[in-house]
Structure formats: structure tokens, C-alpha cells
Amino acid sequence: MDFSQTMASRRSIRSFQQKDVDDAVLNALLNEALESPSSSNSQPYKIAIAQGEKARVLGQALLAKYQQANMLSKQSLWHKLIAAIKGGVLPDGDFKTILGKYPGEFQQRRVDTGKGLYKVLGIERHDKKARDEQMAKNFYFYDAPVAMFFFIHPGMTHTALVDLGIFMQSLMLGATARGLGTCAEGALGMWRSPLEQHFDIPSEYKLVCGLALGYPDNHPVNQFRPEKMSLDSLLINQK
Predict the structure, then answer these.
(1) For a 10 Å CB count at each end of the chain, is N or C smaller?
(2) pLDDT of the residue at 78
(3) Residue 110 and residue 102 in contact, taking contact as beta carbons nearer than 8 Å
């Protein structure tokens, strides 16, 4: 693909083939993404990658955390306080990932995107069970064969997040160009503790988010494209 085709065809993939990604392909993608620019070439990020059995086991652990937390959210304040004291249920990620209601126009875009996605999936707004099940798929990476977890060094403050975003975009576009699909997942930043059991993560690095990677299947959800803003909305007028 040329660049315009790659940009236009990239989607958030939420249904994957049960087909492994060769290490050679994965390494090529990562090496390409390492060409991304960063502030003074600081490259303030690291990645943990789970594949195969490790991805399956880690997905089960994260799913269990989500299910416990989801059940807790329906309990009384007292039960929530007990859980907070005992630990192990409430999110222990390094950044706040549950944002609540977005401000202003951003919430409307969020709502419109959610409606469009659920329409493709055939999930009615009132079907809480189906919505919970769809949300749960985040935590086992939509059955993707590769799960990536991204960390930044906080000493680089906000520029580390900018640099990581550029790196992730390079990675996602590179995957698209090779016939692979990705889904960036903020939800995978909710729990750090299960990752600590599988990776020797430097303590000074902070978990930001995750990403599912693999070969897309033919599920209609993979064709969903939310509406992007217009140039008029993007550009700030001159005085």
C-alpha cells in the first residue's frame, strides 16, 4: 500500500484469525517503528509482549480482574471500601484509565462512536449483559495472538506520552501495510499487577496502555469506521 491507502484502511480490529504472527514479522514491525521521532531521540518507552500460551494466561488473569471489579461496581459503598482495603480487585495501573464522562463535544463523539459500534455488533443499548461481554473482550485482547503493553519513563513528563503515541502510530500503520490489524486498548492500562508476574518490568517505568495485534478475520466489526471531524473543526481560525 502507499501511505494514503494505509491510513484510509487502518481500523481498530476487534476480531482476529487464530493465526500466529511470526517472530520475524513482529521484529520487522518493531524495528520499523523504532525509526519514529521522539523528543531529542530520548525514546522514553518500553514494551512487554505476550504471545501464545503467555498471552492466554495473562488474558485470563486480566479478565478475572475485570469481572471481579465489574461485580464490585454493583455492590454497596461498604463492600467497595472493603475491597479497596484488601486490594487485588480495584485497578492498580499507573494512570487513571476510567475517565467518566468526557467534557463537551468529546463526549458526543464518544457516544456516537459507541452507538455505531454496537449497531454493527447488533447490541441494543439496554442489553447490559451483551455490553459487558463486549467490554470484557478487551482484557483477553479480542483473542489476538499478540498482546503488547506500553510503558513510559515519567522523568520525561508529557513528552513521553507524545513520543509513545508517535511510536504506536508507526507500529499500527506498519502492521496495516503488512496485512495485520491492531486495536489500541486503554483498558489494558487498568491493572499492572498481573503483568508483574510475567515480565521483569523496570519499576521506574509506568504502564500506559496495551495493543492487540494479529490477522483480521472477516467479521463486520472490523469494517467499522467512526466519523472523523472535518477540517473546519480541526483548524483554529486566524485572528
Answers:
(1) C
(2) 59
(3) yes
| Packed helices 23-33 and 157-177: angle between N→C axes, nearest 10 degrees | 130
pTM of the model: 0.93
Segment 133-142 shows an average pLDDT of 97
Helices H / strands E in the chain, number of each: 9, 4
Grid coordinates in use for 115? 452507538
Closest CA to 181 of 221, 153, 217: 217
Distance of alpha carbon 12 from alpha carbon 153, whole angstroms: 26
Q: How confident is the model at residue 97 (pLDDT cuts 50, 70, 90)?
A: confident
Looking at residue 101, what DSSP letter applies? Answer: S
- The better pLDDT of the pair 145, 81 is held by 145
Collapsing DSSP states into helix, strand and coil, what is residue 6? helix
Of the candidates 177, 211, 207, which has an alpha carbon nearest to the alpha carbon of residue 193?
207
Chain center to CA of 120: 20
